[in-house]
Amino acid sequence: MELTVNGEKHQIDADENMPLLWALRDLLQLTGTKFGCGAGLCGACTVHADGMAIRACLTPVKAVAGQQITTIEGLSSAGDHPLQEAWIKHNVPQCGYCQAGQIMTAAAFLEKNPSPSEADINQAMSGNLCRCGTYPRIKAAIKDAAASHPGKGDEINGGEVNG
Question: Residue limits of the 2Fe-2S ferredoxin-type domain (predicted)?
């Protein structure tokens, strides 16, 4: 089976029902995407499929064959995506476990809504859990990323990979 991940085509030898999370982590060695709950409830495993945020723990590889998959490793080749910069500026992570999923959810959200209200951010991020409770910093970072790049949705969603 062929998967296109972070702009590169990969041939994988996997059961078509294998969760995408395990194909990414175990077969492609892309370990930035985390296993959290295994039920799609926490958001730690969030990646993009054709720009849409999906839960990799629930998505079988057959469902994303032919789509462009973007992981946290592919969001920005230099690690300077506006959200990554805002995460650093606002000192968002504590343990850091949920952060890849938080950033990937926020990137897909900002692509669709580059000028969100606080209520929009709360709604969009409600499915991502943070054990450390850094929600105020997460929200501040998302606001900052949106404000620093208004109307540039392609940059917000890692345009150099998906673009």
Answer: 1-75
CATH superfamily of 2-74: Beta-grasp domain (3.10.20.30)
Given this model, what pLDDT does residue 156 score? 45
Q: Please state the rounded mean pLDDT for residues 91-97.
A: 92
Nearest to 55 by CA among 95, 131, 108: 108
Q: What is the CATH number of domain 82-157?
A: 1.10.150.120
Domain boundaries, the chain: 2-74, 82-157
Query: How confident is the model at residue 88, as a pLDDT?
Result: 95
Query: Does residue 31 carry a pLDDT above 60?
Result: yes
DSSP state of 72: G
Letter string b/e over residues 135-152, b meaning 16 or more CB atoms within 10 A of that residue's CB: bebbbbbbbbbbeebeee
